Amino acid sequence: MSMINYASREINCKIVYYGPGLGGKTTNLEHVYGKVAPASRGKMISLATETERTLFFDFLPVDLGTVRGFKVKFHLYTVPGQVYYNASRKLILKGVDGVVFVADSQTERMDANIEAMQNLYENMQQHGYDITRLPFAIQYNKRDLPNAAPIPDLQAALNPGWPVNEPVRQRPAPDPYHENELLVSQQDGQWIERAPWFEAVALTGEGVFDTLRAISKSVVKTLG
Predict the structure, then answer these.
(1) How far lies 155's CA from each of 52, 172, 183, in Å?
(2) Among 49, 110, 128, 202, which residue carries the largest CB count within 10 Å?
(3) How distant, in Å, are the alpha carbons of 20, 22, 70 from that of 28?
(4) What is the pTM of this model?
(5) CB 192 within 8 A of CB 183
(6) Which secondary structure element, helix H or strand E, spans residue 224, and what is its range?
(7) Three-class SS of residue 142?
(8) For residue 165, how many other CB atoms are within 10 A of its CB?
């Protein structure tokens, strides 16, 4: 997981943007890269496939402070969206500290979203990671389009929740990002936890930094 560089007094954390092809992963990273001060970010590296690019860059956010006297540097990655690049997806997930799933809100892309989510769970499992135990957030992108599916439909398909079995965590937990909503709640006698979620229009930058800030804070919490 996170790597400590004692020479530079930095903790290096890896956040991976996952999701279906052309859903907005690259657009998210390009927007972040364009807004982060050049002095705080590294070079963007782009590995091109036939239909898509895998992007990577690192940056030092100035607003997250330090952890035990160390600055936290984030390395942001996207995975190729096409399923036939699954070996690359698996490789990029190795050593991950946090995952953002970028869903395409268009109704006709629902099957592609579900397939990508299932693939994420499978690949995490193969690495021995439990996605329900890692910082994880879902971004519903392309909310400006007329054919965008309603949020309840997207939630039901992509964020139905997972069982909370530890008694200490079996209590209502408010969603800090949506008023009057819960991330942990009881349904039909079973306690369920959902991932934090965000609406976005990555092309204009709307919701991009909200998503990044939330996942970054979750990752930093695990280091404390």
Answers:
(1) 27, 18, 12
(2) 202
(3) 14, 11, 27
(4) 0.94
(5) no
(6) none
(7) coil
(8) 9
Cβ neighbours of 169 (radius 10 Å) = 11
- Write the CB contacts of 191 (distance below 8 Å, at least 6 apart in sequence): 163, 164, 165, 169, 170, 184, 185
Closest CA to 136 of 57, 37, 215, 30: 215
pLDDT of residue 52: 65
SS3 content of the chain, % helix, strand, coil (to 5): 35, 30, 35
Place of tokens 């079995």: 165
Q: Is residue 19 pLDDT above 70, yes or no?
A: yes
Total residues belonging to the chain:
224
Q: Which amino acid would we find at residue 48? A: A
What are 143-161's pLDDT values in tens digits? Answer: 999 999 999 999 999 999 9
Residue 112 has φ and ψ, to the nearest 5°, of -65, -40
CA distance linking residue 174 with residue 168, whole number of Å: 16
Structure tokens at 46: 């782009």
| Residue located via tokens 């979620």 | 197
Residue 101 in tokens: 């799933």
Residue 184, CA distances (Å) to 81, 131, 165, 178 in order: 30, 16, 12, 13
C-alpha–C-alpha distance, residues 111 and 162, integer Å: 20
179-199: per-residue pLDDT in tens? 999 999 999 899 999 999 999
